[in-house]
What we know:
The protein has six helices and ten strands, in the order ααβββββαβααββββα. It is α+β, with helices and mostly antiparallel strands. It has two domains: about 5-90; about 100-215. Helix 1 packs parallel to helix 3 (about 75-90) and helix 5 crosses helix 6.
Amino acid sequence: MGEKKTNYDKTREDAEQRFLAYDQEKMIRKFQLEADEAFLYLRFVGRDYRINRKNGKIEWNRNRSEKIGFVPVAAGFEETLSILDVLCCSKEDCHLSGNFHTIDRMKSTRYAAAPGAGLYASYEKSFDQDTGKLQRALEALGGIREYPGDAAARLPVFDFLPVIFQFWHSDEEFPGTLKFMWDDNTLDYLRFETAFYVMGHILSRIKEEMERAVN
Protein backbone atom coordinates (compact mmCIF):
# COMPACT_ATOMS: atom_id res chain seq x y z
CA MET A 1 0.00 0.00 0.00
CA GLY A 2 1.47 3.35 -1.07
CA GLU A 3 1.98 6.39 1.10
CA LYS A 4 -1.11 8.46 1.79
CA LYS A 5 -1.17 11.68 -0.20
CA THR A 6 -1.18 14.93 1.73
CA ASN A 7 -3.23 17.98 0.83
CA TYR A 8 0.01 19.50 -0.47
CA ASP A 9 0.48 16.54 -2.80
CA LYS A 10 -3.07 16.84 -4.09
CA THR A 11 -2.78 20.59 -4.63
CA ARG A 12 0.48 20.16 -6.51
CA GLU A 13 -0.98 17.42 -8.71
CA ASP A 14 -4.04 19.55 -9.45
CA ALA A 15 -1.76 22.40 -10.55
CA GLU A 16 0.22 20.04 -12.79
CA GLN A 17 -2.97 18.86 -14.46
CA ARG A 18 -4.26 22.40 -14.96
CA PHE A 19 -0.99 23.32 -16.65
CA LEU A 20 -1.79 20.85 -19.44
CA ALA A 21 -4.89 22.83 -20.39
CA TYR A 22 -2.90 25.99 -21.18
CA ASP A 23 -1.23 27.00 -24.44
CA GLN A 24 2.41 26.07 -23.92
CA GLU A 25 3.58 27.77 -27.10
CA LYS A 26 2.11 31.00 -25.78
CA MET A 27 4.07 30.56 -22.53
CA ILE A 28 7.27 30.02 -24.51
CA ARG A 29 6.78 33.23 -26.49
CA LYS A 30 5.59 35.29 -23.53
CA PHE A 31 8.53 34.49 -21.25
CA GLN A 32 11.10 33.58 -23.93
CA LEU A 33 11.53 30.08 -22.55
CA GLU A 34 13.79 27.42 -23.95
CA ALA A 35 11.85 24.33 -24.98
CA ASP A 36 11.96 21.08 -26.90
CA GLU A 37 9.35 18.43 -27.61
CA ALA A 38 9.56 17.00 -24.09
CA PHE A 39 10.17 19.95 -21.74
CA LEU A 40 9.94 23.66 -21.06
CA TYR A 41 13.06 25.06 -19.36
CA LEU A 42 13.51 28.01 -16.99
CA ARG A 43 15.50 29.24 -14.00
CA PHE A 44 13.90 29.77 -10.62
CA VAL A 45 15.80 31.10 -7.58
CA GLY A 46 19.21 30.13 -8.91
CA ARG A 47 18.36 26.67 -10.25
CA ASP A 48 17.55 25.19 -13.63
CA TYR A 49 14.11 23.59 -13.91
CA ARG A 50 12.25 21.68 -16.57
CA ILE A 51 8.52 21.09 -16.94
CA ASN A 52 7.29 17.91 -18.58
CA ARG A 53 5.01 18.98 -21.41
CA LYS A 54 2.92 15.80 -21.22
CA ASN A 55 2.21 15.50 -17.48
CA GLY A 56 3.15 18.88 -15.95
CA LYS A 57 5.71 17.39 -13.55
CA ILE A 58 8.53 19.76 -12.61
CA GLU A 59 12.14 18.80 -11.84
CA TRP A 60 15.24 20.78 -10.96
CA ASN A 61 18.80 20.00 -11.94
CA ARG A 62 20.97 18.72 -9.09
CA ASN A 63 24.04 18.96 -11.30
CA ARG A 64 26.06 22.18 -11.16
CA SER A 65 28.31 21.26 -14.09
CA GLU A 66 27.15 21.59 -17.69
CA LYS A 67 29.44 18.69 -18.64
CA ILE A 68 27.33 16.07 -16.85
CA GLY A 69 23.87 17.08 -18.02
CA PHE A 70 20.51 17.28 -16.25
CA VAL A 71 20.32 15.26 -13.03
CA PRO A 72 16.61 15.48 -12.14
CA VAL A 73 15.13 16.01 -8.68
CA ALA A 74 11.36 16.34 -8.21
CA ALA A 75 10.30 19.89 -7.38
CA GLY A 76 8.51 20.50 -4.10
CA PHE A 77 5.19 22.16 -3.37
CA GLU A 78 6.43 25.77 -3.15
CA GLU A 79 8.44 25.50 -6.36
CA THR A 80 5.68 23.84 -8.35
CA LEU A 81 2.93 26.23 -7.27
CA SER A 82 5.13 29.27 -7.83
CA ILE A 83 6.29 28.28 -11.30
CA LEU A 84 2.91 27.15 -12.57
CA ASP A 85 1.09 30.17 -11.16
CA VAL A 86 3.33 32.50 -13.17
CA LEU A 87 3.22 30.46 -16.37
CA CYS A 88 -0.52 29.80 -16.30
CA CYS A 89 -2.12 32.75 -14.51
CA SER A 90 0.01 35.86 -15.12
CA LYS A 91 -1.61 38.74 -16.95
CA GLU A 92 -1.26 38.89 -20.70
CA ASP A 93 0.61 42.21 -20.67
CA CYS A 94 2.60 41.74 -17.44
CA HIS A 95 5.62 44.00 -17.23
CA LEU A 96 7.84 45.49 -14.52
CA SER A 97 7.42 49.01 -13.16
CA GLY A 98 10.93 49.42 -11.76
CA ASN A 99 9.50 50.60 -8.42
CA PHE A 100 9.90 48.36 -5.37
CA HIS A 101 7.81 48.11 -2.19
CA THR A 102 7.16 45.65 0.62
CA ILE A 103 4.46 43.13 -0.25
CA ASP A 104 1.73 44.94 1.69
CA ARG A 105 2.39 48.21 -0.14
CA MET A 106 2.36 47.05 -3.74
CA LYS A 107 -0.50 48.32 -5.84
CA SER A 108 -3.55 46.02 -5.59
CA THR A 109 -2.62 45.21 -1.97
CA ARG A 110 -3.56 48.50 -0.34
CA TYR A 111 -5.69 46.71 2.24
CA ALA A 112 -3.49 43.66 2.72
CA ALA A 113 -1.93 43.04 6.10
CA ALA A 114 1.83 43.21 6.44
CA PRO A 115 3.61 39.92 7.20
CA GLY A 116 3.41 39.25 10.92
CA ALA A 117 6.34 40.04 13.16
CA GLY A 118 8.37 36.92 13.78
CA LEU A 119 7.22 35.20 10.58
CA TYR A 120 10.84 34.64 9.55
CA ALA A 121 12.42 34.78 13.02
CA SER A 122 14.31 31.49 12.67
CA TYR A 123 15.91 32.65 9.42
CA GLU A 124 16.73 36.08 10.85
CA LYS A 125 18.50 34.45 13.78
CA SER A 126 20.45 32.17 11.44
CA PHE A 127 21.42 34.92 8.98
CA ASP A 128 22.47 37.23 11.82
CA GLN A 129 25.41 34.98 12.65
CA ASP A 130 27.42 35.92 9.54
CA THR A 131 26.24 38.65 7.16
CA GLY A 132 29.32 38.16 4.99
CA LYS A 133 28.38 34.55 4.36
CA LEU A 134 24.78 35.65 3.79
CA GLN A 135 25.89 38.12 1.11
CA ARG A 136 27.94 35.44 -0.63
CA ALA A 137 24.93 33.11 -0.58
CA LEU A 138 22.78 35.81 -2.18
CA GLU A 139 25.34 36.26 -4.93
CA ALA A 140 25.56 32.48 -5.43
CA LEU A 141 21.84 32.62 -6.25
CA GLY A 142 22.51 35.18 -8.95
CA GLY A 143 21.98 38.23 -6.74
CA ILE A 144 23.48 41.64 -7.49
CA ARG A 145 24.56 43.72 -4.48
CA GLU A 146 22.00 46.30 -3.41
CA TYR A 147 21.75 48.92 -0.68
CA PRO A 148 20.62 49.58 2.00
CA GLY A 149 21.28 46.56 4.19
CA ASP A 150 24.23 44.83 5.86
CA ALA A 151 23.55 42.11 3.29
CA ALA A 152 21.28 42.83 0.34
CA ALA A 153 20.82 41.84 -3.28
CA ARG A 154 18.49 42.03 -6.23
CA LEU A 155 17.65 38.37 -6.80
CA PRO A 156 16.24 36.86 -10.00
CA VAL A 157 13.17 34.90 -8.89
CA PHE A 158 12.81 34.17 -12.59
CA ASP A 159 14.94 35.73 -15.32
CA PHE A 160 12.04 38.11 -15.92
CA LEU A 161 10.96 38.82 -12.30
CA PRO A 162 13.32 40.17 -9.61
CA VAL A 163 12.93 40.72 -5.88
CA ILE A 164 15.18 42.72 -3.56
CA PHE A 165 16.26 40.98 -0.35
CA GLN A 166 17.59 43.11 2.51
CA PHE A 167 19.00 42.12 5.89
CA TRP A 168 20.09 44.26 8.83
CA HIS A 169 22.42 42.84 11.48
CA SER A 170 21.24 42.96 15.10
CA ASP A 171 22.48 45.58 17.55
CA GLU A 172 21.89 46.47 21.20
CA GLU A 173 18.36 47.65 20.49
CA PHE A 174 17.03 45.59 17.59
CA PRO A 175 17.24 41.95 16.46
CA GLY A 176 18.38 40.95 12.99
CA THR A 177 15.72 41.88 10.46
CA LEU A 178 15.04 40.80 6.88
CA LYS A 179 12.85 42.42 4.27
CA PHE A 180 11.64 41.57 0.77
CA MET A 181 10.99 44.39 -1.72
CA TRP A 182 8.82 43.52 -4.72
CA ASP A 183 8.27 45.31 -8.02
CA ASP A 184 5.01 47.24 -7.88
CA ASN A 185 3.61 45.13 -10.74
CA THR A 186 4.47 41.76 -9.21
CA LEU A 187 0.82 40.79 -8.79
CA ASP A 188 0.46 40.94 -12.57
CA TYR A 189 2.78 37.90 -12.57
CA LEU A 190 1.60 35.90 -9.57
CA ARG A 191 -1.01 35.82 -6.83
CA PHE A 192 -0.54 37.44 -3.44
CA GLU A 193 -0.41 34.08 -1.64
CA THR A 194 2.06 32.73 -4.20
CA ALA A 195 4.50 35.48 -3.25
CA PHE A 196 4.70 33.89 0.21
CA TYR A 197 5.58 30.53 -1.37
CA VAL A 198 8.34 32.30 -3.29
CA MET A 199 9.68 34.08 -0.21
CA GLY A 200 9.70 30.85 1.77
CA HIS A 201 11.57 29.09 -1.00
CA ILE A 202 14.10 31.91 -1.35
CA LEU A 203 14.87 31.75 2.36
CA SER A 204 15.38 28.00 2.27
CA ARG A 205 17.67 28.37 -0.76
CA ILE A 206 19.73 31.07 0.96
CA LYS A 207 20.14 28.88 4.03
CA GLU A 208 21.06 25.93 1.82
CA GLU A 209 23.77 27.96 0.06
CA MET A 210 25.16 29.15 3.39
CA GLU A 211 25.33 25.58 4.69
CA ARG A 212 26.87 24.32 1.46
CA ALA A 213 29.66 26.88 1.78
CA VAL A 214 30.60 25.36 5.15
CA ASN A 215 30.86 21.79 3.84
